[in-house]
Amino acid sequence: MSGKKSVIAKKAKEWLLHADEDLRLAKHAFKLKTSTPYKLIAYHAQQCAEKCLKAYLVFSDIDFPFTHNISALLELFPPSVVWIKDLDAANALSGYAITAWYPGTHKVTKRDALQAVEIAHRVRGAVRKALKEDGLNILSYRRK
After folding, report:
1. Would the N or C end of the chain have less CB density within 10 A of its end CB?
2. CATH superfamily assigned to domain 3-141
3. Using an 8 Å Cβ cutoff, are 141 and 14 in contact?
4. Cα–Cα distance measured from residue 128 to residue 74, given in angstroms and rounded to the nearest whole number
5. φ, ψ (nearest 5 deg) of residue 109
6. Per-residue DSSP letters for 66-121?
7. Which CA distances in Å does 76 have to 63, 95, 105, 107?
C-alpha cells in the first residue's frame, strides 16, 4: 500500500473505531436498571452511522463537510456505490444528533432507541463489508 493510501486507511480505521465505541455504548445503555437515557442511546446510534459513513468517504478519498446530517453524507456517495440505497433508513437518525443536546426536543422512546441501534448496526455492517471488498483490512483496527 502506498504512503498516501496507508494514511487514508489508518484514518478510515480510526473512524470505524470511534463508530464501534458509539454503538457499544448505545447497546450497553439498555442494561441500565432505571432511567434509561433513550435519547442518548439514539444519539450514539446516530454517531455510529455517521462515523461509519465518514470512514467509507475517507477511504474513498471523498471530502465531506463537518455535519451530523446523514442525508448530506449519503448524497456524497458516487452513483457506482449501489449498496448505499439500502441505507435510506439512516436518514431518520440525523435528528438524534440534536435531540440529545437540546431540551424541549421530541422525546425518544425505547422503541425509537431500539430502532436507531438496529439502523446503526445495518449501516456499520454494510460499510464494513464494502470497505473490506475495497481492500481495507478492517480486522486490524481494534485497540490492543
Report:
1. C
2. Nucleotidyltransferases  domain 2 (1.20.120.330)
3. yes
4. 16
5. -90, 170
6. S---HHHHHTTS-TT-GGGGGGGGGGGGTTHHHHTTSTTSPPPPHHHHHHHHHHHH
7. 8, 19, 28, 30
Residues in the chain: 144
What are 97's three cell numbers?
444528533
The phi and psi torsions of 107 (rounded to 5 degrees) equal -70, 140
CB 134, CB 13: distance < 8 Å:
no
Return the C-alpha cell found at 41.
442511546
Amino acid identity of residue 44, one-letter, is H
Q: Which residues contact 126 (CB under 8 A, 6 or more apart)?
A: 83, 84, 86, 87
The predicted structure's pLDDT at residue 144: 41
CB 138 within 8 A of CB 131: yes
Which letter, b or e, does each residue of 23-40 get, where b requires 16 or more Cβ atoms within 10 Å of its Cβ? bebbbebeeeeeeeebbb
pLDDT at 74: 96
